[in-house]
Amino acid sequence: MLTETRWGYYDYTDRHEPDIPADAGQGFDTLLVWTPFVNEAAKLVENDVVTAAEIDTGARLGGNWPEGPLDKCDEGGANVILRKLTEVATRHDRRTNSPKGSTVTCWVRR
């Protein structure tokens, strides 16, 4: 069981800290993390629940993200996000070749 120490939840006094190589995440496709967030954020904006600026501000300030999901979409392009959503959907949903509920197809803020 983890107990909080005055330095955080991990106490390495009895053993060495884990050795994680600097290139451990090299080659990881970060779009696998970003695309679901972009898709859900686009749905919220589309349904007038929140504005794009509020989503991105909330992600940066509340989640300590480097940028918001819709900023990320603007940076890479909605077509890149949609392509990744479609790729993941075809790997996981054998019944269809398109992502269910994807609203990112025409997301543009500029």
From TrEMBL:
<dbReference type="GO" id="GO:0006631">
    <property type="term" value="P:fatty acid metabolic process"/>
</dbReference>
<dbReference type="GO" id="GO:0016616">
    <property type="term" value="F:oxidoreductase activity, acting on the CH-OH group of donors, NAD or NADP as acceptor"/>
</dbReference>
<dbReference type="InterPro" id="IPR008927">
    <property type="entry name" value="6-PGluconate_DH-like_C_sf"/>
</dbReference>
<protein>
    <submittedName>
        <fullName>3-hydroxyacyl-CoA dehydrogenase, C-terminal domain</fullName>
    </submittedName>
</protein>
<dbReference type="InterPro" id="IPR006108">
    <property type="entry name" value="3HC_DH_C"/>
</dbReference>
<feature type="domain" description="3-hydroxyacyl-CoA dehydrogenase C-terminal">
    <location>
        <begin position="33"/>
        <end position="94"/>
    </location>
</feature>
<dbReference type="Pfam" id="PF00725">
    <property type="entry name" value="3HCDH"/>
</dbReference>
<dbReference type="InterPro" id="IPR013328">
    <property type="entry name" value="6PGD_dom2"/>
</dbReference>
